[in-house]
Specification:
Blueprint: E1 2-3, E2 6-12, H1 22-38, E3 43-47, H2 53-61, E4 65-66, E5 75-80, H3 94-105, E6 108-112, H4 118-132, H5 141-153, E7 157-164, E8 167-177, E9 180-188, H6 197-211, E10 216-218, H7 224-232, H8 238-241, H9 244-248, E11 254-257, E12 262-264, H10 268-283
Helix pairs in contact: 1-2, 3-6
Length: 289
């Protein structure tokens, strides 16, 4: 994308090279850098695949620098669906289990959506975006339709709708990649809060993920400090306990710190200026650790 007179590129969760040799990782990163030069990219932002510390180290060795721009998710919450000590349903918070039961008792129903339901899902997602004061991504129903149709054709996408009296209230859009199912998008129209439609839609999509043989259910994104506190055994403050991340813990989710993004500038002068500015950016708190 072009922004403020520069061309930015994002390499998200890549290069993907599980079990690759150090030489192969170096070659892949040099190929990425050569491509950035050939495409006249001003700024390349790259984030290694989740849980791949070897690629993170390779990026540092290749001269990629800490990201001071921001906007990349660096933590998330995952539920282990295969762990049996105890099984994931028994790891649900008691209030979450209660909400799921109440949803069914109070008349909510659940169903799988199809291609014709994508516009209805987009409207639910749009309602959530308005409440959170964010822009929808994908930005149009047509883009969402294209993505769903392509993914569902390969059995990798799932739409789950929670409905009351035949009318959609909440929905989840999940995508499966390997051993992980990602709650990629969700929506709720703010109706029937007391019937817990969002809890029911999430539970159904987790059950689908388990039936697909997935190991992890990824809720996509959480505050890095929130996750760091949990991993270190520290108590969450009142503000953190009032976030949606805290509610997601009710689904048996565990904190995961993701690779920190790196930046690379093909232009030698721009790269030198960026490197010089890094100490200042660290003092200003613009660089995550």
């Amino acid at each position: 994308r072009r922004r403020s007179g520069r061309t930015e590129a994002l390499l998200n969760k890549g290069p993907v090279a599980p079990n690759a040799t150090p030489e192969m990782r170096r070659w892949l990163l040099s190929l990425v850098q050569d491509t950035a030069r050939a495409q006249r990219i001003t700024l390349l932002i790259a984030q290694a695949p989740d849980l791949d510390p070897a690629m993170e180290r390779a990026m540092d060795e290749a001269g990629l620098m800490p990201d001071a721009i921001g906007g990349i998710l660096t933590a998330s919450l995952w539920t282990n669906l295969r762990r049996t000590d105890p099984p994931w349903r028994q790891r649900l918070r008691k209030t979450t289990q209660q909400e799921a039961r109440q949803a069914l008792r109070r008349g909510m129903t659940i169903r799988e959506g199809g291609s014709a339901d994508v516009p209805a899902f987009f409207e639910l997602m749009l309602a959530t975006c308005r409440r959170q004061q964010t822009l929808p991504n994908p930005a149009t129903p047509e883009a969402m339709q294209t993505l769903y149709d392509q993914m569902h054709r390969s059995g990798l996408a799932r739409l789950s709708f929670a409905e009351f009296e035949g009318k959609p209230c909440a929905a989840s859009f999940c995508i499966r990649m390997g051993q992980r199912v990602t709650l990629w998008k969700k929506g709720w129209n703010d109706l029937h809060r007391e019937k817990h439609p969002s809890t029911l839609a999430t539970m159904e999509s987790m059950e689908w993920a388990e039936a697909q043989g997935a190991e992890w259910y990824d809720f996509v994104g959480a505050g890095r400090d929130f996750c760091r506190r949990l991993l270190s055994g520290e108590s969450l403050d009142k503000d953190q306990q009032s976030t949606r991340y805290f509610n997601l813990l009710g689904f048996g989710a565990e904190p995961k710190l993701l690779p920190l993004p790196r930046v690379w500038c093909p232009n030698t002068l721009v790269r030198a200026v960026y490197r010089t500015a890094l100490p200042v950016m660290k003092k200003l708190g613009r660089i995550q650790v």
